[in-house]
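Hello forum,

I keep getting stuck at the same step: I have a sequence, I want structure tokens, and every attempt I make locally crashes halfway through. Rather than fight my setup again tonight, could one of you with a working pipeline run this one for me? It's a single chain of 113 residues.
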Amino acid sequence: MEKFILHQKTYDFILYLYPIINRLPKNHRHILGRRLEELALSLLMFLMKANKARGIERNALQTEASDTLDYLRIIVRLTKDTRLMSVKQYVTTAEKLNEVGRMLSSWMGPRSV
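Reply #2:
Ran it on my machine without issues. Output:
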């Protein structure tokens, strides 16, 4: 059940993100906005694929999802630091990403280094 909730939380994050992307200035929308969109959709794709996979393939897809989440956090922060996103939007976005991250970490379980 938690995996479905993880997909839904990620989907809800994407729905929250689209209006922010659409309000970016045109010159930033095509670069930064597109990257935000690509990363968010890639995250959802990796989660969906990992949910269907098993064993080593699932672990690899979960790791890809985790890496994509990290990249997404960096781009969101860059968007805020360049004042293309309000602090309030950033806080909400960061909270949503952190929730997805906690759920993903829980799903991945302990990993040996």
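The CA atoms of residues 10 and 44 lie 6 Å apart. If your local run keeps crashing, start a new thread with the error log.
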